[in-house]
């Protein structure tokens, strides 16, 4: 009798669809919050090796008291706009007690869903208004993942979509309408800001796509830029939120990775982290900018959800 999962040695190799089935957004956001409260989590710095031609190899390990995992992915910006994805690879999950492989998750699926779930958790904790409408700038994988996450986790009913690709914009609008949302395309995301207190930017981060102005009820989750050379947000927007609102980074590693903030000259040493906001909600002050750069801990949260204690025989 065939199973739906393929066997890879003693591990279960999951397809992208099977990986997604293990990682519903709301439970994944809850698992991320639980991980931030877990003193047994250990996450060393990720290793990044640049390749000729502009690509990179990322090796991102982490563990808790039950599971160990490593995400091994490639990032190839030159694939943007082609049939090949820009992110490829796998997440290998191990049993800490025995060293046995438990599952091999699809790396791009984990990356998309855990990134959107982190933004969802940040919006649940920090957004002045969580009902939307939602503006998505960048209609690729992250745009769709964030749309699904914000619909499932916040109940968003209206979305505006801006992208350089008319085909990608239309595909995301069609998806939104299939979900029952009111959906609009726009060539002017600055203008759409007036209608949308929730904002997600998930572009290739090769140039500025938003530079404000923001009102006091805006929440912006910026996820596209994860190196000092990348940025989506302009200096005026970043400086305005730093001076008149609240800037939160996903982890302390953003101090040397968040290109949007670094290029805007925002002081990085005293910024709030998501873990601090989970422990104690900060005072609400003006617009909120949540800058996400990525962390292997988020992948470990996905591994924990995909490999519950009952699957490893842990007590």
Q: How many H/I helices?
A: 11
- What global shape is seen? globular
Instruction: Say how many strands there are.
Output: 15
The CATH architecture of the largest domain comes to 3-Layer(aba) Sandwich
The percent range for strand residues is 15-25%
Q: Mean pLDDT, as a whole number?
A: 93
- Assign the CATH superfamily of the largest domain: NAD(P)-binding Rossmann-like Domain
Please write the CATH class name of the largest domain: Alpha Beta
Unreliable sequence segments: 6-10
Would you kindly provide a brief summary of this structure?
This protein is an alpha/beta fold. It has two domains: 120 residues, ornithine cyclodeaminase, domain 1; 186 residues, NAD(P)-binding Rossmann-like Domain (Rossmann fold, 3-Layer(aba) Sandwich), CATH 3.40.50.720. It is 34% helix and 23% strand.
């Amino acid at each position: 009798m065939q199973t739906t999962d393929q066997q890879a040695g003693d591990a279960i190799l999951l397809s992208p669809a099977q990986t997604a089935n293990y990682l519903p957004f709301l439970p994944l956001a809850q698992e991320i919050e639980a991980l931030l409260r877990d003193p047994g989590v250990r996450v060393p710095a990720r290793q990044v090796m640049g390749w000729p031609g502009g690509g990179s190899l990322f090796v991102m390990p982490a563990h808790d008291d039950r599971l160990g995992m490593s995400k091994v992915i490639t990032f190839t910006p030159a694939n943007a706009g082609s049939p090949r994805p820009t992110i490829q690879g796998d997440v290998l999950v191990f049993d800490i007690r025995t060293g046995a492989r438990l599952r091999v998750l699809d790396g791009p699926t984990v990356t998309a869903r855990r990134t959107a779930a982190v933004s969802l958790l940040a919006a649940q904790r920090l957004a002045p208004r969580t009902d939307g409408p939602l503006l998505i700038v960048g209609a690729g994988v992250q745009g769709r993942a964030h749309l699904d996450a914000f619909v499932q986790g916040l109940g968003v009913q209206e979305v505006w979509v801006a992208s350089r690709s008319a085909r990608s914009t239309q595909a995301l609008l069609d998806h939104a309408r299939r979900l029952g949302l009111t959906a609009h395309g726009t060539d002017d995301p600055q203008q759409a800001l007036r209608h949308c207190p929730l904002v997600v930017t998930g572009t290739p981060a090769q140039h500025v796509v938003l530079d404000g102005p923001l009102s006091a009820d805006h929440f912006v989750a910026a996820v596209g830029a994860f190196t000092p050379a990348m940025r989506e947000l302009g200096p005026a927007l970043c400086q305005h939120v730093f001076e008149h609102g609240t800037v939160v980074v996903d982890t302390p590693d953003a101090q040397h990775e968040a290109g949007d903030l670094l290029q805007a000259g925002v002081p990085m040493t005293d910024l709030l982290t998501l873990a601090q906001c989970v422990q104690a909600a900060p005072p609400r002050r003006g617009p909120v900018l949540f800058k996400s750069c990525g962390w292997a801990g988020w992948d470990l949260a996905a591994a924990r959800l995909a490999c519950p204690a009952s699957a490893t025989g842990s007590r």
